[in-house]
Amino acid sequence: MREARGLAFVLAAASALAWGSACGPATTTTQNGAGGASNTNGAAAGTAGTAGGYQRKTKPQGEKVYIGFSMDTLKEERWQRDKALVEAKAAEMGAQLDVQVANGDDAVQTKQCDNMLTKGVNVLIVAPHNGEIAASIVEKAHAAGVPVISYDRLIKNSDVDLYVSHQVEKMGEMQADYALKHAPKGNYVLIGGAPTDNNALLLRKGQMNILKPAVDGGAVKVISDQFAKEWKAEEAQRITEDSLTKTNKDLQAIVASNDGTAGGAISALEAASVPAGTVIVTGQDAQLDAVQRIAKGTQTMTIYKPIKPLADSAVESAMKLAYGQPIDAPDKVNNGKIDVPSKLQEPQAVDKENLDATIVKDGYHKCEDVYKDVPSHKCATANVDEKQGVEGGGPKTFVASSLAALGLLLSAFAFARSR
Ligand code: BGC
Question: Checking DSSP bridges between strand 331-334 and strand 280-281, what pairing results, if any?
Answer without folding.
Answer: unpaired
